[in-house]
Amino acid sequence: MKVLMLDQAKCTGCRACEYACSFEHTGKFNPLDSRIKVNEFWEDLTFVPSVCLQCERAYCEEVCPTSALTKNPETGVVELNKEKCIGCKQCIVACPWGSIKLDHTGKEVIKCDNCGGDPACIKVCYPGALSYEEVEDITNVKVQETATRLKEIAKDLVKGGA
Amino acid sequence: MRHVIVGASAAGLNAARTLESLDPQGEITILSAEEVFPYSKMSLPYLLSNKVKKRDYLFLPHPSKAKLLLGQRVVNIDVERKKVETAQNKTFSYDKLLIATGAEPYVPDMELEGSPLVLTVRNLSDMDKLKDKLNKSDVKRVILSGAGLVNSEIADALAELNIPGTFVIRSSRMLSQIVDEEGSEIIAERAIESGMELITGESITKVQEEGDHVNVFLSSGKVIQGSCVVVGKGVKPSIDFLEKTPIKCDTGILVNEYMETSVKDVYAAGDVTESIDLISDEYEIHALWPVAMEQARIAATNMAGYSWKYPKEVSRNIVNLFGEVVFTGGISKEDAYDVYKEKEGRSYHKILVRDGKLVGFIFVGGVLNPGVYLAAMKNQWDISHLLNEAIKGALSYSMFKAPTREVVNI
Question: pTM for the whole thing?
Fold first, then answer.
């Protein structure tokens, strides 16, 4: 199973992903129609991309009164079935992360669908903050990254003690 | 463990789903008073406007292991012997019991209650009756007694169908329970443009059938005609069957922070309960679909032997009315604490802030991430540095989770 992976440390805040996402889904370049959002913290000069986490037991899915939202067990994506959706918006209130949201008209519900397995956002992310990877690979990378950081801390501690 | 769940709507079924995963060996029985398979009550107005494209979509997902028994109306609970008795003369023994019987429409005027000319919106059969009246009546106009959430949603559905409606409102305005005067005004303007009529400061005294329509007598003596009367004056918890039990009730069943009632091993969730509200810190009825879902999940988790605390709830509503999204939460209708308002044409934003924390809001249009507002209010995050974003409807989750260099570096 592949998942969208975000590395906040690499995000430069260019917001190309937002435009790519909007274009992929609507044919227009409107960041308000983007499923991915780059949050800007100018005081800290830090940028944080955020996108649907495809929760295991998703709040949006639980609260949907017509079962229009369901988790696809194969892809892991929480899918929105437009045919079943009545537009009641309970899902967008239920999501504490704002990852399922309204489009630019303020009326349509939109959410990340991993572009059906070929995410547009990663293709334009030149700094490499976004990637689409197998869950197992990510786990290994994370283990190594954490170990490396802890090693540096351990080294500092040794130096401090010496 | 034998789990018995009374009621098979949002709360009952979500509790069953939770129990199925947390207590796979457990025996789960759901008793439903209705004869039809559980459906989503929240979607009923959407069924009227045909936004529910197929009737099948209304039915809730079938529990995979739990036993669902239809047509079993519970009449008493023997808390000593741990048995539930139904009107169908059956008894069910339990180790843990969940009461999720929901609420029923409140018809304040006894004269109107039970009249075939007066409809309420709660069950699937109510919607069928309303559709039938609309088809048969020579007068199309629908008389809406009360302009609360349900009747406003019905009016919105009627507007979609190009059917006129008349609100008869005892107070002076629409949605007076959740929206302030400024917000009401905009919504009313939109309602009128969509073919609704508003009669304020009046109530219905008598309803009389005449041919295929009804004559409705108002307190001022005025008589109006319609196809039927829909009463939407709120709901009351369905607790009549608890009369002979020691389970403590006020308007609804009083639950503690574990969703347990005053009787051990008896839990309650959903519209039937009263629980502590986060903002007012008092017992309140949150008759809301998502609250029912959450309460049920927590009650079921505790029935399975865990001890999860229920985070105090806040009232909130999001509703599509006459082409605009109306989103409210907390003590929305009041002007208390620090009040910030922004009105621009047909959009109206208001936030109420207490000690830097969000305690209420109204958005008539123009909110990007409603879920974040709710999260900010439920968690009482400090928004004092984000007031500008908050009033614009632009709060986003990561504004609260700003990464500091330390976090990035470690």
Answer: 0.90
Decide if B319 is inside a domain: no
Among chain A residues, the shortest Cα distance to B316 is held by A93
Please report whether residue B406 resides in a domain: no
In this structure, what DSSP letter does residue B398 have?
A: G
* Residue of chain B with shortest Cα separation from A32: B368
Residues A62-98 as b/e (b if ≥16 CB within 10 A, e otherwise) read: bbbbbebbbbeeebebbbbeeebbbebbbbbbbbbbb
B347 touches chain A (CB under 8 A): no
Q: Which domains does chain A have, with CATH numbers?
A: 1-132 (3.30.70.20)
- 8 Å CB contact of A89 and B320: yes
- B369 contacts A63? CB cut-off 8 A: no
* pLDDT single digits (tens) B337-360: 999 999 998 999 999 999 999 999
B139 and B157, same domain (yes or no): yes
Report the alpha-carbon distance of residue A4 to residue A50 in Å, rounded. Answer: 10
Taking the Cβ of residue A73 and every Cβ of chain B, the question of whether any pair is shorter than 8 Å is answered with no
User: In which domain, by residue range, is B361 found?
Assistant: 334-399
Same domain for B144 and B93: no
Average pLDDT over chain A, rounded to an integer = 91
Model pLDDT, residue B211? 85
Q: Do B290 and A63 touch (CB under 8 A)?
A: yes
Contacts of B366 in chain A (CB under 8 A): 106
Taking CB atoms and an 8 Å limit, are A50 and B40 in contact across chains? no
> Chain-centre distance of CA A159, in angstroms?
39
Residue B37: burial class (beta carbons within 10 Å; 0-12, 13-18, 19+): middle
pLDDT class for B403, splitting at 50, 70, 90?
very low
| Yes or no, beta carbons of A93 and B316 under 8 Å apart | yes
Q: Is the confidence at residue B410, as pLDDT, over 90?
A: no
ipTM rounded to 2 decimals: 0.87
Are A98 and B372 an interchain contact pair (Cβ–Cβ within 8 Å)? yes
Residue of A66, A95, A153 with shortest CB distance to B52: A66
Q: pLDDT averaged over chain B? A: 92
Residue B168: in which H helix or E strand, if any?
Answer: strand B165-169
Whole-number Å distance between alpha carbons of B195 and A33: 32
Indicate which CATH number applies to the domain containing B93: 3.50.50.60
**pLDDT tens string A23-73:** 999 999 999 999 999 988 888 888 889 899 999 889 999 999 999 999 999
